[in-house]
Design a protein that fits this description.
The structure is a homodimer. In chain A, 35% of the residues are buried. The first copy, chain A, has helices spanning 2-26, 33-40, 44-50, 54-76, 83-100, 102-110, 121-141, 147-168, 178-198, 200-203. Chain A is mainly α. In chain A, 76% of the residues lie in helices and 0% in strands. The termini of chain A are far apart. Chain A is elongated. Chain A binds chain B through residues 27, 29, 109-113, 119, 124, 127-128, 152-153, 155-164, 166-168, 170, 172-174, 176, 180, 184-185, 187-188, 190-196, 198-199, and chain B through 27, 29, 109-113, 119, 124, 127-128, 152-153, 155-164, 166-168, 170, 172-174, 176, 180, 184-185, 187-188, 190-196, 198-199.
């Protein structure tokens, strides 16, 4: 019993890795159940014994991508940096990760669940965890902002950088050279930080600290 | 001869409109040549007499979407507004358009050309035209920035707003309520404008003007 469970776990892991390789090479549209079955040496039905459906499989791959991305952002950032510098460093790390793993990264945002299917809570939390990287330095930048404002602003600043990277790397829109792209990210993040820190609502008592 | 050309033009227009309806209702993945042929009452081969391939058809739909989007941004913006206010108004108009036409808007950014196919120049220009809306107010905000910096910054600011809207409207990431989303766009745009205007490189002689 345990042996067969172990075997199933190992096969499931192999399936997720095969899916990761295919998405990493060809993007989401390259993912076919037939090829997955072939890659792990099982029948088509065997694939659906390991995961509920292809959406669930994609979410497991996304979870791994998000974990690596999160590690890259953590490694680039130290809490002894000035908040603006830390936010810039996180944003540049995001850009570099996206560039190095473009198809897996794009898949995070392009994947849509099939009709009438909802995202499991663990997958939502995986994704919302990205915004958390921004929250700590933002709290230091805006000591008077309340928790709700900080949450929302973290998402906003993350999303702004995400948009710059998404459109910046898009070959279809004539990609921006990498050095220029990183320069733009830094310019925008620093300008936004400067502007936010001056906003009365977020830091009016900063001078009194 | 002219009559048959007119007929072909009209049929092509009907095909683009049918594709627009399908993408508008179901997104890019809903687009099937078979359904298009049925919608305009021709054979499958007939579809490919009217457009080179489905990629080209999608680009024609994108061109229409970009035209409406551009009109919406123009209508929301007046050059007698303060530059920050004008940039905010353009960004809010972008957000509202995206929300009202989500599948067509998402298709603009999700569509990838088939392997080894390049985007025609007209389609590139269509897309880059979006950034131009931001350039005029940005030029007024940063009177000392050179043309290259302004071009790049226009793309960056547009992309930042795009990212906030993309992730903000994403049901998968728990969409942000619309009023909050518009508030966040305004906060980010105004903070970035304030920060940029203080940047020496862009406006150091502003005080002397």
């Amino acid at each position: 019993m345990t042996k067969s469970l172990d075997r199933k776990t190992a096969q499931r892991e192999a399936l997720i890795e095969a899916a990761e390789r295919i998405i990493g090479a060809q993007g989401l549209q390259g993912l076919k159940a037939r090829d997955l079955a072939h890659a792990i040496g099982c029948s088509l039905g065997g694939v659906y014994n390991l995961v509920g459906d292809i959406d669930e499989l994609i979410l497991h791959v996304a979870s791994r991508t998000l974990r690596s991305l999160s590690e890259a952002m953590t490694a680039a950032s130290h809490s002894d940096m000035a908040p603006e510098a830390q936010l810039s460093a996180i944003a540049i790390a995001y850009c570099r990760f996206a560039q190095a793993h473009q198809p897996l990264w794009r898949a995070l945002f392009e994947h849509r669940m099939g009709r009438d299917k909802t995202l499991p809570d663990w997958a939502i939390n995986d994704q919302l965890g990205l915004f958390a990287h921004v929250a700590a330095p933002l709290r230091r930048l805006l000591p008077n902002a309340d928790a709700d404002s900080l949450n929302l602003l973290s998402r906003t600043l993350f999303s702004a950088v995400h948009g710059i990277v998404w459109i910046g790397l898009d070959e279809k829109l004539v990609a921006v050279p990498v050095a220029a792209l990183e320069g733009q990210i830094e310019t925008l993040v620093c300008a936004a930080c400067r502007g936010l820190a001056e906003e009365k609502a977020f830091s009016h008592s900063r001078g009194n600290a």
